[in-house]
């Protein structure tokens, strides 16, 4: 691995024009250009985009097939007046219908994940109203989950770090624990029984809240928050599905991260043989070439709206023509370049390297599926202690990783969590789905080097 000797990048000091950027947290390198899995800064340093931006870049950077599609569309029209039909919107919705599982056939386009989640919550409410179930309005979420930053998304999310400042402004809706994984499984209990026990928490919560009030349950398919990437047995989701059906509760699968190939299938719920009633997607759908989000609903949920019910909602930028052009090109690439298959096979190769990281005292867990691998960083995996916030462990990790040619997406999980929860900081390995085995090897070598230097810096 040829790593040029260079100083460790630090967070940028807010001075000059940078002081005019509200609440800016980036490190010093300035992005100049990006291509494939690589980012290049203005000093000519190259970085592997190891987390695919915020686990979102499903095709590589600067693919001319996408940039040309966007500019071709911009030359025709960049925005469509609301009085006229936007053909591209129908094209994208039809493409999603062809790819989405089961009868998830109708899509409402938005501009991102948070908007998609808020939209899903409102579709669920209006669906129940149309069905005469007027009391149903509460959405059950999972603790420590992330569903975005709008007030609706924060209400169903469960990460205290994100919610606390805004608590008085959020809906006081219930949360359960997501599937908790092998670490919390009681001794002697098998995996499936434990998964069923976790799933039954939903039925208990519906009972206590009152089924007549519960509109929907929302969760991410492969773990929530600190446990992101934890893959439950299929029985977990199948049982959740049954419980939702029993109480007329809609199941919302938030596939903003997992949708469009990240876990080796088009959508992560396909691993479990359970179909959601509403699916939220964003990120990978346009590979971040333009802001795009989508809410795809089943035929049952669509029925009242197909029969004339008007959905009371809308955004100026929904189904924006340039985002639609980008998404159509991205979906073409995902299919033509077989990137979903590459996510499955190269992902398997990635996960076959887990042991190499688990040998370290600072890696407590390696989990995930496809090209989503989550390593859980701790101070000591025997005690499952994490570093105190003053130790600035994430900042040091990111700086060393950048020096070694890796750009990671750093989450706020870890440093803000009380030690009692015994969880570390998730590190997301989620590169563009076009990554090759050789590039994975390079990424992992650089990560090994980064971990060794970071451990030394942290006094381990
Ligand atoms: C599962 C999930 N849902 C929703 C969102 C919000 O998406 P956005 O940042 O596009 O609003 C995110 C963002 O990371 C996410 O991970």
What are its keywords?
single chain; 460 residues; alpha/beta; Aspartate Aminotransferase, domain 1; Aspartate Aminotransferase, domain 2; 2 domains; seven-stranded mixed β-sheet; four-stranded mixed β-sheet; 14 strands; 36% helix; 15% strand; binds pyridoxal-5'-phosphate
Quick overview:
With 460 residues, this protein is an alpha/beta fold. The chain has helices spanning 52-55, 64-76, 87-99, 113-130, 151-156, 160-163, 191-209, 234-246, 299-306, 321-336, 339-351, 354-358, 393-403, 437-457; strands at 31-35, 38-41, 46-49, 104-110, 138-142, 175-176, 214-219, 250-254, 278-281, 293-298, 363-369, 372-377, 406-407, 425-429. The chain has two domains: 16-62 and 338-457, Aspartate Aminotransferase, domain 1, CATH 3.90.1150.10; 64-336, 3-Layer(aba) Sandwich (Aspartate Aminotransferase, domain 2).
Please outline the helices and strands:
Blueprint: E1 31-35, E2 38-41, E3 46-49, H1 52-55, H2 64-76, H3 87-99, E4 104-110, H4 113-130, E5 138-142, H5 151-156, H6 160-163, E6 175-176, H7 191-209, E7 214-219, H8 234-246, E8 250-254, E9 278-281, E10 293-298, H9 299-306, H10 321-336, H11 339-351, H12 354-358, E11 363-369, E12 372-377, H13 393-403, E13 406-407, E14 425-429, H14 437-457
Parallel strand pairs: 3-13, 5-6, 5-7, 7-8, 8-9
Antiparallel strand pairs: 1-2, 2-3, 4-10, 9-10, 11-12, 12-14
Helix pairs in contact: 2-10, 3-10, 4-9, 7-8, 13-14
Pyridoxal-5'-phosphate (PLP) binds next to helix 4.
């Amino acid at each position: 691995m040829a790593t040029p000797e260079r100083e460790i990048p630090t967070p940028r000091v807010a001075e000059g024009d940078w002081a005019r950027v509200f609440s800016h947290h980036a490190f010093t390198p300035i992005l100049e250009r990006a291509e494939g899995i690589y980012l290049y800064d203005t000093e000519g340093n190259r970085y592997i985009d190891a987390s695919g931006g915020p686990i979102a870049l499903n095709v590589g950077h600067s693919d001319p097939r996408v940039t040309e599609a966007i500019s071709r569309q911009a030359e025709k029209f960049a925005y469509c007046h609301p009085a006229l039909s936007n053909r591209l919107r129908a094209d994208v919705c039809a493409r999603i219908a062809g790819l989405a599982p089961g009868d998830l056939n109708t899509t409402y386009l938005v501009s991102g994940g948070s908007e998609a989640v808020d939209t899903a919550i409102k579709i669920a409410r209006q669906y129940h109203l149309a069905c005469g179930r007027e009391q149903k309005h509460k959405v059950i979420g999972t603790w420590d989950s992330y569903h975005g930053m709008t007030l609706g998304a924060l209400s169903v999310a469960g990460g205290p770090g994100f919610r606390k400042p805004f608590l008085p402004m959020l809906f006081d809706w219930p949360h359960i624990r997501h599937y908790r994984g092998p670490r919390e499984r009681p001794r002697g209990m098998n995996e499936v029984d434990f998964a069923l026990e976790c799933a039954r928490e939903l039925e208990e919560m519906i009972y206590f809240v009152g089924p007549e009030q519960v509109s929907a349950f929302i969760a991410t398919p492969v773990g929530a928050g600190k446990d992101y990437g934890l893959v439950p047995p299929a029985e977990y989701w199948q049982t959740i599905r049954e419980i939702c059906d029993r109480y007329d509760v809609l199941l919302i699968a938030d596939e903003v991260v997992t949708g469009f190939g990240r876990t080796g299938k088009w959508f992560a719920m396909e691993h479990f043989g359970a179909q959601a009633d509403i699916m939220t997607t964003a990120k990978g759908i346009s590979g971040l070439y333009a802001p795009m989000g989508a809410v795809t609903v089943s035929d049952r949920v669509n029925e009242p709206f197909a029969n004339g019910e008007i959905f009371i909602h809308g955004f100026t930028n929904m189904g924006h023509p340039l985002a639609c052009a980008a998404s159509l090109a991205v979906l073409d690439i995902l299919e033509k370049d077989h990137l979903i298959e590459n996510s499955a096979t190269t992902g398997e190769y990635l996960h076959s390297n887990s042991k190499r990281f688990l040998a370290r005292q600072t890696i407590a867990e390696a989990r995930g599926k496809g090209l989503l691998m989550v390593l859980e960083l701790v101070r000591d995996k025997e005690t499952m202690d994490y570093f105190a916030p003053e130790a600035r462990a994430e900042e040091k990790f990111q700086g060393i990783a950048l020096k070694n040619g890796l750009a990671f997406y750093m989450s706020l999980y870890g440093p803000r969590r009380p030690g009692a929860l015994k969880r570390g900081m998730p590190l997301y390995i989620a590169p563009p789905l076009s990554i090759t085995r050789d590039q994975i090897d390079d990424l992992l070598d650089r990560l090994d080097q980064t971990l060794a230097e970071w451990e030394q810096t942290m006094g381990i």
